[in-house]
C-alpha cells in the first residue's frame, strides 16, 4: 500500500492546453530563427555552383546586416533577389541555406505584406509551386522549415493575380481535411476578436485591418469567375464599399493600386453581365430569371 507521504510526493499530472502548446511551438520557432540568421550561407559557393545567377551572391550577402524593414526595401529596389532566394530551396546537401532564404522572405512579408506583390512579379516565369513542393515533400524536413515554406507558398497562392497555380495544385496544397480542424476550434472566434480589439496598439490594429482588406480584395477577384458569386457581389453593393475603401487614408500606397485594380475588374464584370449578349444567352438556355442585373421591378413592362 502506498503511504500518504509517498502519495503526496508524487507530482500531480497536469495537461498542457492547446494554447500553451502553440506558445511553446512559436517560442521554439523564434529560437530557431535566431540560430538560422546567426550565419549566412556561403553565397559565393552557391553562385559558383550555378544555383544562383552570377552577381547575386553580393546582393544576397548585403541582406545579412539589415533589419526586416531594410530587407523589405532592398527587395523592392532589387527584385532579382527574390528568385535567387527561392532558387536556394532546391539545394538538398545542406538545409541551412533554404532555412535562411525562407526566414528572410518570411520576415519581409511579415513586416510589409505589400512586398508579396513585388515578389510575385519578380517570380513570373518560374516554377514556384515545384520549387516549394520539392522542399516540403523532402524526407525528414523539420517543422520550422515546413512552416515557413507553407506560409510563403500559401501567401503566393492567395496573391497571384494570374493562373500560375492550377486548381489541382491549390487543392492539393490546401487540403480540405484541415479546414474543419481550424474552424471547429472553439478558441478561434475568441482569438480573431482578440487580435481585432481596439484595445490593441494602433499599429497592431492597422496591420490586422490591412490584412483583412487585402484578403477580401483577393477573395472578390477570385469570385469574379463565378457567375452566381458576381450577382451576389453586385446585389450586396460591394462596388460602393470598394469605392469607400479607396478614399480611406492608408499608409501603404500599394493598397490603393490593389483596390483600384479590384474596382476595375469588378466594373468590367458588371458590364459583361449587363450586356445584351448575356440576355441572349439566357434566352438560348431557356432560363430567364429576374436578377439585380436588370433594371425596373419584377413584372414591369419596359418600354
UniProtKB/TrEMBL annotation:
GO terms for cellular component: vacuolar proton-transporting V-type ATPase, V1 domain. It holds the Pfam family V-ATPase_H_N. It comes from the Eukaryota. Gene3D superfamilies: Leucine-rich Repeat Variant. InterPro entries: ARM-like, ARM-type_fold, ATPase_V1-cplx_hsu. One of its GO terms (molecular function) is proton-transporting ATPase activity, rotational mechanism. SUPFAM superfamilies: ARM repeat. This is Vacuolar ATP synthase subunit h, putative.
